[in-house]
Amino acid sequence: MLTISQLASYAGVTVRAVRHYHAKGLLVEPERDHSGYRRYDAAAVVDLIKIRILADAGVPLSRVKELLAAGDDDFKKAVAEIDKRLRLEIRERQSHRERIARLVHGDGLALPPEAVAYLERMRELGISERIIRGERDAWILVAAQQPQSMDAFIRNKVGQLDDPSVVETYRELEAMLDWEPGDPRLETIADQIVAQMDAVSDEDWAAYVDGDQAMPDELAALLDSMFVEQVPVARDLMRLVEKRGYTGWTKLERIEARG
């Protein structure tokens, strides 16, 4: 007959684990002998080894007792179900690892991969983190409100980054963050923005206004308010752009097209 310590040693578990299995009803707890100790036989060792093997394989303790008592067919069926659950958990954990990996720059916390890739492209082009932070915050709002449209929005923005004049405007916008309201240099930036909008083809303009790249007015207004809050000269710039025939910021529109 074996003491609890000897039982644990034979089965390759701790004494604490044996007591835990007793508490869960997985391992029969023998009566105490005349000295007050519990004594275990060889059958207890076999049962404990089976419990350990099942637990180490990922079988929930709530199902161990069922499997120990199951016949061959029921055992195979139960193991198949457990294997299916474990494979699902593995896929979920892999997904979690991929999400964690995207958090290196903090961009992936609330953004889909295509938006993170877009922000990385901005970094590669030398656009400053001050501008990228504003872009990221804006995309977080868009992703939360229009997740089904993110692919189209990002596709459009990625295409814009192929235009050197757009990249240059981003760099000038960074300098603009430190300007005071009324700065005369805003006139030049307004001219550049309007020139870029005037260069948009009729086909692309239709997609921008009414197609899958069109942003709801309410969301555009929210993003415009963020721009105004973050950039001291934003209102001045938007007024200058409006004088040149466009209104808004996030969703610039020709004034005559709205009338």
Automatic annotation (TrEMBL):
Pfam families xrefs: MerR_1
Molecular function per GO: DNA binding; DNA-binding transcription factor activity
Entry keywords, A to Z: DNA-binding, Repressor, Transcription, Transcription regulation
HTH merR-type domain mapped to chain residues: 1-70
SUPFAM superfamilies per the UniProt record, alphabetical: Putative DNA-binding domain
SMART domains listed in its UniProt record: HTH_MERR
Taxonomic superkingdom: Bacteria
PANTHER family given in the database record: MERR-FAMILY TRANSCRIPTIONAL REGULATOR, REDOX-CYCLING DRUG-SENSING TRANSCRIPTIONAL ACTIVATOR SOXR
Protein name: MerR family transcriptional regulator
